[in-house]
Amino acid sequence: MVAAAALLPWHRSGSAGRNAFALARVADNLGLVSDGPRRALFTAVFLLPVLAAVGFLAAVAGNRRIVGLSSCVSGMIGLASGAVVARLSGGRQVGPVVAIVAAVIAAACGLHLVLNRKASDG
Q1: Which terminus of the chain, N or C, has fewer Cβ atoms within 10 Å?
Q2: Which DSSP letter does residue 48 get?
Q3: Are 28 and 42 in contact (CB under 8 A)?
Q4: Closest CA to 71 of 58, 89, 90
Q5: Taking a C-beta distance cutoff of 8 angstroms, is the pair 40, 78 a contact?
Q6: Are 75 and 107 a contacting pair, CB within 8 Å?
Q7: Nearest alpha carbon to residue 108 among 71, 80, 81, 79
Q8: What is the pTM of this model?
Q9: H or E element at residue 75
Q10: Where are the domains of the chain?
């Protein structure tokens, strides 16, 4: 079996690209993303890189409220994702709990930036 695996093209070239987006496409192709809430969460996770870019550009531009809004929305997506994974894993994993805590912190900090009247937009 090991000798046969050595002859496979991906093993020989060493270029097998795997990331979260590829995993998400596989889950979608298997029919695991079927109902409305799962589809909404699936789409929202794909928007996270856009939200990160928007937050970064707003920070460079000095617009703290947009940074806060981006952080808030990202935190809510992270909270929903962590809750779904924690529910599916039965609470036996540490990762979803850490993700939920980080998401709550991101959402709270973002909310502070959005609601802070002293935040001057540059």
Answers
A1: N
A2: H
A3: yes
A4: 58
A5: no
A6: yes
A7: 71
A8: 0.70
A9: helix 64-89
A10: 43-115
